[in-house]
Design a protein that fits this description.
Elements lengths: L1 H12 L18 H11 L1 E9 L4 E8 L2 H4 L10 E4 L5 E3 L20 E7 L10 E6 L2 E7 L2
Antiparallel strand pairs: 1-2, 2-5, 3-4, 3-6, 6-7
Length: 146
């Protein structure tokens, strides 16, 4: 019984004869040098920016490697901004009265993934556009929206 399951998985994962391989995935993260700089200087690994809420919000995700270096990103008084690199338009993190700012502001923990949402009124920014995320002195540039 197990041998037949393994055989089915092997066949299912092989491409069909004559089928073309899928196109390479677009790079949506910062350049490797930029990613290394962010890890060394800020203790974070940028996961990316993606559309959410039918495109009316953009979600920035990052993983904390070094909580001490990443601490400035979690200061509540610091207002994050997402900048459209083509136009210079700036998007803010919404702050609904009942929930507060749509971002993490508790002390960071190593190996945890954190997020923040940016309002995208009129769905002005779309997949494929390049943006920069600025949080105080932190700046993640040339991130492509997925």
């Amino acid at each position: 019984m197990l041998a037949s399951v393994a055989l089915v998985l092997t066949i299912a994962s092989s491409p069909a004869p004559g089928a073309s391989l899928p196109a390479p995935v677009d790079v949506t993260l910062p350049h490797p040098r930029e990613a290394t700089r962010l890890k060394r200087q800020w203790g974070v690994d940028v996961i990316g920016v993606r559309e959410t809420a039918a495109g009316y919000m953009l979600e920035f995700r990052y993983s904390v490697i070094d909580p001490k270096k990443a601490a400035p990103l979690f200061v509540r008084q610091t207002k994050p901004v997402l900048i459209d690199e083509a136009t210079g338009a700036q998007l803010q993190v919404p702050t609904p009265p009942k929930t507060g700012a749509l971002r993490n502001s508790n002390p960071p923990l190593a190996r945890h993934t954190y997020w923040m949402f940016f309002a995208n009124p009129g769905r002005s920014l779309k997949r494929g556009q390049r943006v920069s995320v600025v949080i105080g002195d932190f700046r993640a540039e040339h991130v492509v929206i997925r």
